[in-house]
Amino acid sequence: MGVKVTPGGFAAPGTAMGFRTGTWRIQRPEHVHGIAPCHHACLAGEDPQAWIASLAEGDVAGAWQRLIAANPLPASTGRVCPHPCETACNRGGYDAPLNVHGLERWLGDAALAAGWACPAPAIGRDVPAVAVVGAGPAGLSCAWQLLRRGIRPVLLEALNQAGGVPRTAIPPYRLPRAVLDGEIERLLATGIEFRPHQRLGRDFSLEELETDFAAVFLAVGTQKSRPYSVEGVVPRDLRFGLDLLRHWIAEGAVPVMDSVAIIGGGNTAVDVARILKRAGVREVHLITHERMPHAQVPDYERMRAAPDEIVQALEEGVLIHENRMVRRLILRGERVVGVEIVHARKLKEGERVRVQAFEGTESVLKVDQVIPAIGQVVNEEGLAQLLGQREFLRVEADGRVPGTSRIFAGGDCRPGLGTVAGAIFDGARAAAAIADLLGRHETRPQRGAVVGLDRLNLHYFDHAPRQEPPVLPVSERAGDREVQGGLDQQAAHAEALRCFSCGNCMACDNCFTLCPDNAVLKTRAPLTDGSHYVFDYDYCKGCGLCAHECPVGYIAMVEEE
Amino acid sequence: MNGQTISIEALRSQQPRYAGLTAGHRACLGCGQALAARLVTEAAGPDVIVANATGCLEIFTTPWPESAWRLPWLHSLFENTGAVAAGMEAALKAQGKSTKVLAFGGDGGTFDIGFQALSGMLERGHEVLYVCYDNEAYMNTGIQRSSSTPHAAATTTSPAGRARMGKRHLKKDILAIIAAHHIPYAATASVAYPADVRKKVRRALAVPGPSFLLVHSPCPLGWGHDGALSIEVARLAVETGLFPLVEMERGSLVGVLPLRAPKPVRDYLALQGRFAHLFADDPRAREELAHLQALADANIERYGLRAGGAGLDTESADTVRRGGGQWA
C-alpha cells in the first residue's frame, strides 16, 4: 500500500486509510426511498411526509409549494377529506396518528391568509388547448395540472361559479365558502380560461369539443338521484337528500317536519341529518345497514361518512340506527307515517358483500318523511353515446374512457368515487395521461415498498401527544358556523415534529454518528437520493449497524455481488 | 442539489467533525470499542495525547507500520498505562502546555492488570482522563473472563456446562473503587448514548485533576451477537439497569440517566450467545436469570434510576430530530 516505515519507528498519522476494509464486506448498506403509509393512503395522491418535513424545518412556503403540486385545494380538503392518511399513519401504532388533515388545513389557511399565488408558467395562445368539462375538484385539479405542464386548459362549467359539489352540496359549517372561494379564485387567477354557464348537451356537444380541443376531460359529476322505492312503493312527497342539501345551501331554509328518517350511511346522509337538526326538525333518524366506524369494524361494514362528522352528528342529537334497513313504508293514503325497519348486516362471502336482513327483528319508527340519501348517478344529457345503459362513465387505469382516443373522465362521474380528494387525484391522473398524449412525456418516480412500523426503529422517538384543534360546543352549533376549528401555529409546528418520516431520510445523523468504521460521510446539500449521507464503501465492512439503527427505515442491507 | 459533484476523497476531507480515529482500522464488524474510541476522541480532540494500554484498541488501530490514529498516540504496556499517562501529564505541565492527556484501556488493562498504575495516577492527582472501554472480557486474546465479566456470562475461561452456569463471580464494582479515590469526576457511559458520551468527556476534561470514564462497549464476537445489534444490545444493558449510567463528583452521586420503564434483563440477555445457557430448561438457569434480574433491580434501587412518572426515558438523550445536531 506504499506505507513508508519512518526512521524513528513511528507510524505516520492516519496511514491505516491505505487499507481498504471494504473488501471484507459481504453485504452493503444502501439508501432505499420507501413510501410513507400516509402517501400510499392519500386519495389525492399527496405525499404528506414530504410537505410535513418542510413544515418541521419551519419552511411554510416550501411546504405549501410541495403540497399544491398534488392538491391545489388544501384548505378545502383539510376540512372535508375523511383522511385515510391518518388511519394508515405508523404513529397510530405507537401513540396516536399524526393530525395530517389538521396540518393540511393549517397550511392551506396560512397560504390564503398570506395571499400566496399558485406558481404557474405563462402559456402562449399557440399552445394546444384541452377542454375540461365541470369546474368541481376534478376539473379544477386537471386544469391546474395541465397548466403546470404548460398545456392550456379551458374550463367549462354549467353553473355561474366554479366549485362543484363542495359549493353546492357540502354544508358551510363544514367548509366555509370564504375558504372555498379563496382557493378557487387563486387557482383561476393563474390563467386558466374559465367559461361559466356552459352546459354539456345544451350549449355545446361532445363532438364540438373533440373538434375544437386537443383532448377532453369530463368531470361532470353526478346530477341525478338514484331512483328510490321500497318494494315498488314511492311516497308522493318524496324529497331526495341531496336536493334538500342543495336547497338549504342555496336558500338557507328547508321545509320543517317533526320527524324524518334518512336512508343511507354516506356523507350526504350525515350532512342532511345535521342540516335538518339545524333547521329545527325535532327527531332525525339515520338508517343505515352499515356500522359506525370503530377500530374493530372491518372496512366493508363501515359507514362511508367521515368518522368525525358522524361523531359530531351524534353530539348534535342525530339518532343513528346502524345495521338496520327499511323493510316497508307505512303509508296512510300516499303520506308516510312511519317505516318498518329490520336488523341487517353486511356479510362477506369471498369477494362479494351482500346485505342480509333478519326475520323477527322488525320494529316501527314513526316519521313524517323518508329522505333517501343513497347516491347519485350521471345525467346522460350530452353523454348518451358514452354512457349507453350505464349509470357512470367507465375509465381505464389512466383515466381514459374506453373506446375513445382523446376523452378522459374522472371525479364523481366514474364509479366508486365520492370524495373531493379522490376527484383531485382523478384530475391529476388524467392531466398526466393527456400530457403523454400531447407528446410531453415525463418520467414518473418509481414507488418503493410501503414502510410499516416494523421497519422503523421506534427507540429514537419520544412519545408526544397529538395536537387536537378546538371543536365548537354543541350549544353554539347553528347555521353556517364552522364546527371544527383549526390548529394554531405552535400546535402545527409541534404536530409536524411528531412525524416519523417513514422511509425518508430525516438527516438525523444517526448513521453518521454510530458507524464504528467512520464509513458514513455527511454532505452539506441533500443528495439526489434525498439523504445527506454517502456510504464510503472503501471502508464499510457491512456490519449493518446503520441499517438497524436508522429510525426511519431508510437504509437496507443488500447482498454484495 | 446544484449539480456539483465531489469526489469521495474530497468529501472525506470536509467532514464536519474532528476525526481522531480514521477508517481503515481492523476492528471487527459492529465493534463497540471502535465506535466508543471514535466518539471519545471526537469530543476530546484535537489538542490531546493518548496513552493506550495493550488490548484490542491498540492492536486493531496500529498494525505496523500503519496507524489509524490522527493524534499523538503511544502504546504503553498492559500494566502501566496510568503511570505512562501520569508521566506525560507531568512532562507537559513542566513545558507549560495545555494539551490534555488521555489514557485508554480495556477492562482487562483497567480492572485487573493496569489497576495499580491507575490507582496511583488517581491518588497522585494527575490531570488525566482515563477512559476504560468495557467489553467485559479479554477479547483480544480469545475471550477470557476478566474481573469485569458479568456474573453468569460464558467465556473461554468461564465456560457454561455441567459444573457451572458461566462465570461464578460478580462483576467488579470498579466505580465504588474509583469513588474511594475521591477524584473530581467519574462517570459511566454507553455507546448507545453518543450525546451522553460526548457530554461526559467534555465535563471530565473541564475539571482540574484526574477523571475516569467507563464506556460500555459491546463486543459482537465475545458477546455472541450480530454486529448490527451492537447499539441495541448496549442500549438494553442500560435500559434493564444492568449497566447504569451515572456521574460522580468527589465520590458522591451527582447524576443518573433515568429509566421510565426499566426492561426485564431477559430482553438484554436473550440477544447474546454468552448468556444462551441461561435459557436452557434447567433449574440453575432459572436461578441465574433471577439472580441477574435481582442485580439489575439492586442497581436501579441503589442509583435511583427510576424516573418519576411522567419523566422521559433517558431525558431524550437518544431521540432523533430532523436535521441532526442532537448528537453534538
UniProtKB/TrEMBL annotation, chain A:
Q: What is this protein called?
A: FAD-dependent oxidoreductase
User: From what organism does this protein derive?
Assistant: Thiobacter aerophilum
On the tree of life, the source organism's domain of life is: Bacteria
A Pfam family for this UniProt protein?
Fer4_20
Q: Where is the 4Fe-4S ferredoxin-type domain?
A: 531-560
Query: Which UniProt keywords are present, listed alphabetically?
Result: Iron, Iron-sulfur, Metal-binding
Kindly list the residue ranges recorded as spanning the membrane.
none
Q: Sorted alphabetically, which InterPro entries does this protein's record hold?
A: 4Fe4S_Fe-S-bd, 4Fe4S_Fe_S_CS, DPD_II, FAD/NAD-bd_sf, FAD/NAD-binding_dom, Helical_ferredxn
Automatic annotation (TrEMBL), chain B:
Mark out the compositionally biased spans (Low complexity).
146-160
Instruction: Name the InterPro entries for this protein.
Output: PorB-like, THDP-binding, TPP_enzyme_TPP-bd
**Annotated segments matching region Disordered:** 144-164
| Membrane spanning residue stretches | none
Task: Please provide an example of a Pfam family that matches this protein in its UniProt record.
Answer: TPP_enzyme_C
Q: Which UniProt keywords apply?
A: Oxidoreductase
Tell me where in this chain the Thiamine pyrophosphate enzyme TPP-binding domain is found: 55-213
This protein's source sits in the domain of life called Bacteria
Q: What is the protein named?
A: Thiamine pyrophosphate-dependent enzyme
Species name for this entry? Thiobacter aerophilum
Q: What is the lineage of its organism?
A: Bacteria, Pseudomonadati, Pseudomonadota, Betaproteobacteria, Burkholderiales
